[in-house]
Amino acid sequence: MPIEETLVLVKPDGVARGLTGAILARIEAKGYALVDIRLVEPDRETLERHYAEHEGKPFYEPLLEFMMSGPSVAIRLAGNRVIEGFRSLAGTTDPTTAAPGTVRGDFGRDWGLKVQQNLVHGSDSPESAARELGIWFG
Ligand code: DAT
Ligand code: MG
């Protein structure tokens, strides 16, 4: 059984809206294991590393500003194929059109077309997971 680890972030909008518990409940109900969890207030350098692949894109600066707007919850999550599984649980990037039943589809909403306010982050590949877990959990 391919047990993997992934990095999950409950982003500042999720924490500010009091949805951390609801999101964790879905993660736990799915059967994933919380290996480590902490409240984080990342500085710009940490976010530049985390979002390096998006540098130069139009949404990059607003994304970093948003991620510095309040605390997030960082989670080291383990489970069978959890990298793909958590992204399925999270839903597609834009919460406006994410499928019902997903975190983004059920809790996300159109806050003036700010796609970055999509509640959660999940690593997108084993390479990303290893890199991102190194950034957030050292
Ligand atoms: P995901 O978080 O689904 O992996 P991504 O890695 O492509 O999506 O983008 C990282 C974050 O950047 C995403 O969660 C929200 C923001 N973002 C992506 N595309 C965007 C866009 N077109 N406009 C505004 N923000 C965007
Ligand atoms: Mg991504």
From TrEMBL:
E.C. designation(s): 2.7.4.6
Pfam family for this entry, one: NDK
Catalytic activity reported: a 2'-deoxyribonucleoside 5'-diphosphate + ATP = a 2'-deoxyribonucleoside 5'-triphosphate + ADP
Residue sites binding ATP per the record: 11, 59, 87, 93, 104, 118
Gene3D superfamilies attached to this UniProt entry: Nucleoside diphosphate kinase-like domain
Phylogenetic classification of the source organism: Bacteria, Bacillati, Actinomycetota, Actinomycetes, Micrococcales
Co-factor(s): Mg(2+)
Domain of life per record: Bacteria
Similarity remark: Belongs to the NDK family.
Annotated protein name in UniProt: Nucleoside diphosphate kinase
Active-site residues annotated for this sequence: 121
CDD domains the UniProt entry points to: NDPk_I
Organism per entry: Microbacterium ureisolvens
GO molecular function: nucleoside diphosphate kinase activity
Domain Nucleoside diphosphate kinase-like: 3-138
Keywords: ATP-binding, Kinase, Nucleotide metabolism, Nucleotide-binding, Transferase
InterPro entries (UniProt xref): NDK-like_dom, NDK-like_dom_sf, Nucleoside_diP_kinase, Nucleoside_diP_kinase_AS
